[in-house]
């Protein structure tokens, strides 16, 4: 762009006209660039379900004893799986029995102990062959 001068000074009106012409010429490109940048700076949308789950887990972790349902949510497993772990502890077949309290038929888990128990590697009782035999039997029944 040429600089226009009038008596040694920039001609402000001519500069404005040139800037307006350039803006008009590149308007679509500018809009295509600026609008997405402005949109990306907006507050991120928070997944409401994820936020609710996070709050629920915080509440669970604040309790000393938690229910089967709460423990299942905390670990991302089924309630039945936890009941099976309790039964193995009762039967004496678990190498690392799950910590629990039976309050006259109501199961509760001591939350701190449960969180320490969870990462301990636990050998499968009954062996892997047992599970494979059940799986094979199921598959043969499906084929027939």
What does this structure look like?
The strands form two sheets. Strands 3-5-4 form a three-stranded antiparallel β-sheet. Strands 1-2 form a two-stranded antiparallel ribbon. Mean pLDDT is 79; it is low at 127-144. It has a domain at 62-122. With 144 residues, it is mainly alpha-helical. A hairpin with a 2-residue loop joins strand 1 and strand 2 (9-10). The chain has seven helices and five strands; from the N terminus they run E-E-H-H-H-E-H-H-E-E-H-H. Helix content is 60%, strand content 10%. Helix 4 crosses helix 5.
Characterize this entry briefly.
With 144 residues, the protein is mainly alpha-helical.
Global geometry? rod-shaped
| Content-based structural category | mainly alpha
Mean pLDDT: 79
Biggest pleated-sheet summary: 3 strands, antiparallel
Proportion of residues in extended strands: 5-15%
Produce the secondary structure layout.
Layout: E1 5-6, E2 9-10, H1 12-25, H2 27-40, H3 48-61, E3 65-66, H4 68-75, H5 79-91, E4 101-103, E5 106-110, H6 111-117, H7 127-143
Antiparallel strand pairs: 1-2, 3-5, 4-5
Helix pairs in contact: 4-5
